Description:
Elements: E1 2-6, E2 9-13, E3 24-31, E4 50-54, E5 64-69, E6 74-84, E7 91-95, H1 96-101, E8 111-117, H2 119-123, H3 125-137, E9 142-155, E10 158-168, E11 173-182, E12 189-196
Amino acid sequence: MYPYYHYGYPYYQMYGDDIRQNLISGQATWTEGGNVTQCNIPWSYNQYMTVAVSTNSRYQCGQTIKVRNPQNAREVIVTVVDTVPNSPATRLNLHRRAFEALGANPSVGLLSIQFQPSPELEQVKWGKYLLEVTQTAYPNYNVTDYNFVEKTQPAQNRVREVYEYSLQNTQERIKVRGTVVYNPTTERVISFDIKEL
């Protein structure tokens, strides 16, 4: 495992079977977050779709986790921004907005959930880049799923990657296709595009 830096924040790329897990049953609590986090990533990152994990957890700063509410099938993808000392490894402390996006009332306090790492995004740097662009472009929606579509190299100094994201809010679900073209040598973005399908 080694860190990448994106917008100044580290996230980790993992290989092999470490991230190929089934859904883990656990519980979620919520927080409003604080000004300082153990990961130096603010709670407001990714439109507040953020989480603190146990210091006993195998999840790392910047890693993405897919969280599901089995009672209503709502899902969110959250980014690890903080840790909670001595909390059970199966307990996630979600930002209040992520907790509410799962359809949970904060007065409940504790929610039964299922969660798993988001392996495709952990392996693909540009999929995570487009996820962040999509979340910024659709601030009232939560990204619930994603798929890698294709990777092509139209020129020696250009690579094109395409991803599809499923988004939902309280009224509707939509699909969005994100495309990024970048220079593989410098890793500079040449262009990107987001459009609804």
